[in-house]
Amino acid sequence: MVSSSAPPQSPPIHLPKTSESESLKKIRHTASHVMAMAVQKLFPKAQVTIGPWIENGFYYDFDNPEPFTEKDLKAIKKEMTKIIQRKLPVIREEVSRDEAKQRITAIQESYKLEILEDIKQEPITIYHLGDLWWDLCAGPHLENTAELNAEAIELESVAGAYWRGDETKAQLQRIYATAWETPEQLAEYKRRKEEALRRDHRKLGKELGLFIFADPVGPGLPLWTPKGTVLRSTLEDFLKQEQLKRGYLPVVTPHIARVDLFKQSGHWQKYKEDMFPAMAETEEDRANEIGFVMKPMNCPFHIQIYKSELRSYRELPMRLAEFGTVYRYEQSGELGGLTRVRGFTVDDSHLFVTPEQLDAEFLNVVDLILTVFKSLQLKNFRARLSFRDPASDKYIGSDEAWDKAESAIRRAVETLGMNHFEGIGEAAFYGPKLDFIFQDALEREWQLGTVQVDYILPERFDLEYVAEGGARQRPVMIHRAPFGSLERLIGILIEEYAGDFPIWLAPVQIRLLPVTEEQVPFARQVVEQLRSHQIRAELDHSGERLGKMIRNAEKEKIAVMAVVGAKEVEANALSIRTRASGELGALPVAEVSQRLRLAIAQYADF
RNA sequence: GCCGAUGUGGCUCAGUGGUAGAGCACUCGAUUCGUAAUCGAGCGGUCGUGGGUUCAAAUCCCACCAUCGGCUCCA
């Protein structure tokens, strides 16, 4: 249905996350058991594994010879309703480890046996549904299945999932479901999911004509339309200005380089499989790994520029910056919209600093990143200290270098008193990071900005500077990208604004709507006048009626519309209508121009 | 890469074995119009691609490609 008015406002229904509600925890634990029991009733060959709650519902992983279908979900739901109606008491029982083992062996559930081995404490708790079904579970649970409301439960989707999240292990069938206290809550949850779909950047990107993907070009390789390119370059210009103020030096480097460059940096050894295959002239070259590859990162290039001359301590910190487009061969199943692509542009910079400058320079970078987020009105992010996993061998460099780098990041975060959490195992292979994590419309998390402290690449590339007094010393590198990826940032921004960009970012800042053809010459002249002030103005010359032109502008989410009729021509004025506030009445052309320029300069509304 | 679903004109979708449909968009004509759709006509599709089954395939089967939901991965 198409409606011109805002949806009717009903009293808001509070939807807590599972972690915030004891009641939902019980409901979802119990619902998950009921679902597992239903599945085993209908699919006797299904083995149960785990079935935890998640923030908006729960899932359960089964090992079943056949994947479940949509039809199966309906049948399972029906069976669950029956179980609920049987009013089975949920009984908690404590047993010894041996007892638990015996019982599991008796019902031949091999996955459960593995789970039992992981449970450290004793006694082991078991929850029964009447005397018909039981599962190892820590609880808590409802007291009776009848406390579940079958009308407030929905089985949402099936998906493959690896046992223990390990791709070398068996692939299980996961059923995602949700359960609430009341059907009204379920309806509200579904409404919000649909709402989220409306702001999905893939949908809006198509509707607003910002970017496309083309089959002949290839997956994960976005093409930017004129409107999308305005967005991109506006963001680029904005950051370039900020960087200019902070002493960054622009550089430009090529898209490809010899394999050797990445052998020296370590990328080839670690990420060969994730790079586009090398371009080799002969099969012999290919066999010897001689050739050129698309760059997966910019750092080795910037390092070459640093190395091209003998550097003095007087030149440091040296901040080399570039919007560098990189190419990574992401797994096919991982691609999605603009958030995960195979070619993307990093607002990259590499800072070469003395060890003494490190702390201050790190703080400068974080300050820049926070300034950028503030200007973009991005508030909903979390800062993650991405450190190495001591148990993994995927890193290069000495423990000492890592310790130094990690403590530098920790010091900076403490100095700033910034909210943060630690992500062990989230570090880059050459160093720890401070990452800024955002959510998309579907509540999936993505890394945007990042700052990394690196003692290791300077070592690998034998970087030096001449210190005061003449001694050769090794600089420290900071890798940083406030946007992270321009593509991903734009994806997040589209969803954050739901397509309603602030004026300074909007591809079209004002559209003139002439009431009849009579006003077209005047409107054309006004458009030219506004454009001469760097305002992105355009004219609707469709010849449609006013109502239709407004409708089109609204659908395209044009923030400021200017109606031009006979009266306006007479008064050298524009009747302004904004998406946000509706009709504002007639304003002199000069004032409209002035207000637009102010809004643009201050990242504000009209 | 793995599991599952989906793929019909530019867009949104209908069409489950018998000569390809609708709305919007686009083009043309009429209308010159004041804050979310003026009326009429026309153009447009080898039904993702390639094989197969059949007298006959958008529809059934196989493979591949792409997209979506997950899993795994993410320098």
Report on this model:
It is a single chain. The protein has 19 helices and 27 strands. It is α+β, with helices and mostly antiparallel strands. The chain folds into three domains: 18-198, Threonyl-trna Synthetase, Chain A, domain 2 (Threonyl-tRNA Synthetase, Chain A, domain 2, 2-Layer Sandwich), CATH 3.30.980.10; 216-255 and 295-493, Bira Bifunctional Protein, Domain 2 (BirA Bifunctional Protein, domain 2, 2-Layer Sandwich), CATH 3.30.930.10; 510-601, Rossmann fold (3-Layer(aba) Sandwich). The strands form seven sheets. It has an eight-stranded mixed beta sheet, sandwiched between helices. Strands 1, 2, 3, 7 and 8 form a five-stranded antiparallel beta sheet that branches. Helix 1 crosses helix 2 (70-85), helix 6 crosses helix 15 (486-497) and helix 12 (358-375) crosses helix 13 (399-416).
